[in-house]
Each structure stands twice: as C-alpha cells, then as structure tokens.
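User: Quick sanity check before I run a bigger batch. Here is a single chain. Can you write out its predicted 3D structure?
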Amino acid sequence: MPRSSTRPRTRARTSTLRVALATGAVLAVTAGCSAQVATDPASGADDKRGSGTGVRIEPAGPASGTPSDRPAAASKPPATPSPAPSKTATEKPAPPKPKIVLASGAEGDQVRELQARLRQIAHFNRAPTGYYGTVTADAVSSFQAKRGLPRTGTTDTVTWQRLLGMTKKPTAAQLRPPAVEKPPPPKPDERCMTGRVLCISKTSRSLSWMIDGKVMSTMDVRFGSQYTPTREGVFKVGWKSRHHVSTLYDTPMPYAMFFSGGQAVHYSADFAARGYSGASHGCVNVRDEKKIASLFDQVRTGDKVVVYW
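Assistant: Done. Predicted structure follows.
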C-alpha cells in the first residue's frame, strides 16, 4: 500500500486521540473536584469575586473552618460538688446548764443572804430566816421572770450572778433584823400554874414553858387548819424524837415532843419561811429553831401540855 494512503489515517487517529485526551481531562476534573462558592464567614454573603472569570475549583471535602477540622476543645472534667457541711461541724455546741447554787430545803447563811438581797429589790417581803422554803422559791421565781430567766424557783449560777450585780452586800442588820417587840402574852390558863407545863395559847399563838407558875421561855407557834385542827385540852408528853420525819406526810419534824397521838410540838422550817400564811396538819409548829432545841433538852417525858383558847 502506498505511504500516502496511510498519513491521512494517522492524522485522523492523532486528532481523535487529542480530542479523547481533552475530553478525559475535562471528565477527570469534573469527577475529582467540587465547585464551591466561597462564603464570607463574617457577613454570610456569597463571595462573587471569582464570578465572570470561571468557577473557583477546590478539592472536595469538608469546608474549611467547619467544626470537623477545628481542634477539639479540651473537655473539662465535671465539677465535683463540695460536700454539704456536716451539722455537727457547723452547729455550736449547746451551752452547759447553769449549776445549782441553792434550792428548796437548803439552810444557812447563804440562804439568808439570798433572802436579804431579794428583799432589797422588793422580791422578799419578810425578815430573812436562813431557810429556803416555798416563800423563798416564789421570790426567786418572781425575780427570774422579771429578768427574762427560766422560772425555776431554784437559784442557779446565772440567777445568783444577776442578783449579785443588782444588789449590795447585806449588812448585819439586814441579815438579822431586830425582832419586833410583841406585847406580853395574856395571863396563862389556871391549868398551867402548877408543875412543869407546856402552856399553849391559841388566842395569842404562843407557847410558854412554865415551871410552877413561872414563865421560863416563850415562843411563837401556829396550829392546824380547820380540816386538821390541833386538839385542845390537857395532855402529857408521851415521847420525844430529835430527828423525826413524818411517815404520813414525809416531812421533817425535828425536836418533836408528842402529846396526843400523832400531834406534837416541833420545829417547822415551813413556818419559819411562810409564817402564818400556812398551817400544820394538827401539830404545834415552832419557827425559832434555837428556842425549840433548847426546850427539847429541858422537857421530860410525862410533862404536862395544856392547849387552850
């Protein structure tokens, strides 16, 4: 075959190959890349700087600046809640209870001082006795109420210190005021004029210790109430008990001299504290302890007892 016949074919094949290569290049570009329009992240508007000159070609994949190609923020561990404060750590311990200084039944000079101090500020309206009875307890309770303290009637350290701060140290006259002179008792009953006699008058509320018509000593007494009256008449001292305690009422009856069943002449701390605002259960109460102690030593079993109006 002559060479001239082959050249046009070769050229045609070369042209066809060039077209195919150009077409493949275009296809390769179209298949491997994506067309994207840049966006201004600040304004959100399309960036058209490339329009009119062709499409801006960028490799396919996630857009630059998206969360997928940002470095992951370091995760913070969850805050550990602080433990709630313990009640035992935050609560203040309860203050200690005040100590008892004086209470009902107490006797002595400190009780007398308490009464004298309460009397200075009008909470105790009688002479100090040295015995802590119901009258003293009521006076202490009144003082506590006025000062905003718990009304216990018992003198604790708080009450005592408050009282000391409001009063002055009692003088000897305030602690033991002179006794008020009383008129002499009326003429004794005729039955008291002979022998050794405890001569007890309900009218004058007095007891006279008499020997053969002569008065040896006299002391104040009180009697039973209308429901438990002290018997009247002539009796004898049946027996004596220096430290007696009533088995019926469970109350002390020191220096007791029994003359009629369970009725006796004896010292009464309640009489010393309350005076005639109270009453006995039938006994003859004496409020001067020194006098009744001395009388107890002088009276003998079998001595006469006369109770009369």
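The longest helix spans residues 7-32.

User: Great, the batch can go ahead then.
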